[in-house]
Amino acid sequence: MNMEFINEIQDNDMCLKDLGQMIYDFCGLNYLDNLSLLASKVSKRLSILNMTFGEYTEFLTRNQQEWNHLVELITNNETYFFREESQLNELSNAILPQLRNKKWIRIWSAACSTGEEPYSLAMTIAESGIVPLESVHIIATDINKKVLQIANRGWYHKNSLCFRRTPKEMLDKYFFPQDEGFQIKSFIKDRIEFRHSNLLHDEDMAAVEKVDIIFCRNVLIYFDSVTTSRVIAKFYHRLNPGGFLFLGHAETITGLNTNFETINARATFYFRKGDVERSQY
């Protein structure tokens, strides 16, 4: 193997590492420990642009719009309606009764992907009958602008796997057939406001008004402990005193220096902010 070829491989590896660092700094996704996966995700884009990894990292510094394409490639947006049913049951049975006297209830779906989570929250609340649906405002955010467009439309193909846990009676009640799929009904859709947001950007996080409940499920698994601590601290500040935080079942903040109390329910666990605001963060 000649020296020129070896140098080319080393340069390519260094540029790939630089790209991984740029992504980490931009949105917290940690590909630095799995650069081969990152290479597989972006190689097709580089082929389309006819660029090397080094040229692409330089391109990203000059073209902010390219980050939209890159985010589409590196984020995982697989989801479905009524995912993690035990948490939705806890919302209905334990949390909504505590909020029934509030004039307004604000919920943040902090990584809403194509919209199944916030729509499921709205449908769950409507089914509960505990609080008026008209008193609920759901803020749904994601870093991926393409999935936000799908979410905001609220239409899903009839053969989509997103309906794999949706009972027929719920489909009939909250959707109507349209073309080759189903459209979410307006009285559910109107409760949700979709926004583009980066969980690592202070200005994006500060733009979210104080909320009573945050759902951020299956996102922290892609962060390291440093980034997780940063995001959890921001969530703490966006919650009203006594507010609730739901993470994915494979995620926990136990062991981190937070002011959240862990609530161990029968079939799930979640976190509660104290009734008195603390200024640790």
Automatic annotation (TrEMBL):
Which domain of life, per UniProt?
Bacteria
Q: Which SMART domains match?
A: MeTrc
Q: Name one GO biological process term.
A: methylation
Q: What is its EC number?
A: 2.1.1.80
Q: Which keywords appear in this protein's UniProt record, sorted alphabetically?
A: Methyltransferase, S-adenosyl-L-methionine, Transferase
Recorded catalytic activity of this chain's protein = L-glutamyl-[protein] + S-adenosyl-L-methionine = [protein]-L-glutamate 5-O-methyl ester + S-adenosyl-L-homocysteine
Q: Which SUPFAM superfamilies match?
A: S-adenosyl-L-methionine-dependent methyltransferases
What would you give as a GO molecular function for this chain, any one? Answer: protein-glutamate O-methyltransferase activity
- PANTHER family attached here? CHEMOTAXIS PROTEIN METHYLTRANSFERASE, CHEMOTAXIS PROTEIN METHYLTRANSFERASE 2
Provide the protein name. Answer: protein-glutamate O-methyltransferase
The record lists the organism as Paenibacillus naphthalenovorans
